[in-house]
User: Fold this.
Amino acid sequence: MSMPSERKSSDACYAIEETFYAPSLEDIYSQVYRVLKPGGVFGCHEFALTDDYEPTNPEHLRIVRGIELGTGIGMMKTVMGCLQALGHAGFTIKKHENLAANDDKVPWYTPLVADLRRANIARDYLTFLGRNRVGRFVSEALLSVLKKLYLIPKESTEACVLLQL
Assistant:
């Protein structure tokens, strides 16, 4: 794994939910560190498992496996694993926080659970439609018709089912 950038050539780098596709966090973070100038900064938004994750809890495992399958990542990393990999790569961590652990009235996962009671604007209802039983049925039926008419690839319905976690 190698970034095609010169050593110590960047003042700053960032990654938003992308580094978890790398086979090794330490390797990708080391590449970022390599291209940063002394004093450069790296801002990173990771998708990681918190300390609340219980690997023996069947529901947690179901959710994690669904995310891994739906996003195409090999294995989700823990927050501690990310922090350790950053340290091993040479970074000094100045700040890290769980952006999901806040007092927002509308949690980040609201579109995923399709709770109509949390809908605030018309767009929310459209977002939630595809995440509830009726919306999924309509989506699958529409895709089946389009597939039979050869207007979409046959794999479209398989992708729809896969993403329903």
